[in-house]
Design brief:
This protein is globular. It has one domain: MetI-like (MetI-like fold), CATH 1.10.3720. The longest helix has 34 residues. The protein has eleven helices and no strands. Helix 1 crosses helix 11 and helix 2 packs across helix 8. By secondary structure, it is mostly helical.
């Protein structure tokens, strides 16, 4: 048990000292997760609303597919994107493999079905009279869309937070597409895996604490936004 206590002591020293490597790793994780979640939000929110509002052939199949992709393994996403970005892949000439851009692409694919499916559920469970009322009042497509955004805002916020949580805590995509390059693509989760395998627990525990603190901060922010918007 001594090594656990020593690990926590070392972790506290790293955090309190403002260790540069620790800060870089946390910033890389935040940057990549925020970019990928932002892209997933920009695509997933309007797509989820469109699927919820429209009736079309194959809609049930699409909804089932989205729900299935919510639990897609991260290593599978990493493998798929890796096959496209590797030198032998169709996009190999772009030179994206082992970059933060590759990590963003992989995490975007991971977050998109989560954001889309949860937004779809939030809008589908909304009072159906909202759209009818907007139409009766002469609202155009853009105005009706904004009204739906307002009415389903809590569900949409929860969808975005869920997407962020999924990508911020993943390890497979970051490891396979980022390459765990020190000072560039090394993230919180990949560093924890690396340091633990080496028997170095202090940095791993410090990063684990940072991971939990960011998750707590995001959920506190969501609660504050809900209170302000409620």
């Amino acid at each position: 048990m001594d090594y656990i206590a020593e690990g926590f002591e070392g972790a506290l020293r790293i955090i309190l000292a403002g260790d540069r490597e620790f800060a870089t790793i946390v910033l890389v994780s935040l940057k990549v997760a925020c970019l990928s979640t932002g892209l997933a939000t920009a695509v997933g929110v309007p797509f989820g609303i469109a699927v919820a509002e429209k009736q079309f052939r194959g809609r049930g199949v699409l909804v089932t597919l989205l729900n299935t992709l919510m639990s897609m393994p991260t290593v599978l996403v990493g493998l798929m994107v890796y096959s496209f970005l590797s030198r032998r892949g169709p996009l190999g000439d772009w030179g994206l493999l082992y970059t933060q851009s590759a990590m963003v692409i992989g995490q975007f694919i991971l977050a998109l079905p989560i954001v889309t499916a949860l937004v779809l559920t939030a809008v589908a469970g909304m009072d159906r009279r909202v759209r009818a009322t907007a139409t009766a009042m002469g609202a155009d497509g853009g105005q009706a869309f904004r009204m739906i955004l307002h009415e389903a805002r809590f569900g949409i916020l929860a969808a975005v937070v869920a997407g962020f949580g999924r990508v911020f805590a993943e390890v497979g995509v970051s490891m396979m597409l980022g390459g765990n390059i020190r000072g560039y693509t090394r993230s919180i989760t990949t560093t924890i895996a690396l340091e633990t395998s080496k028997g170095e627990f202090a940095l791993g525990i410090a990063l684990g604490i940072a991971l939990l603190m960011v998750a707590l901060g995001v959920n506190v922010l969501l609660a504050l936004l809900r209170r302000r918007m409620g």
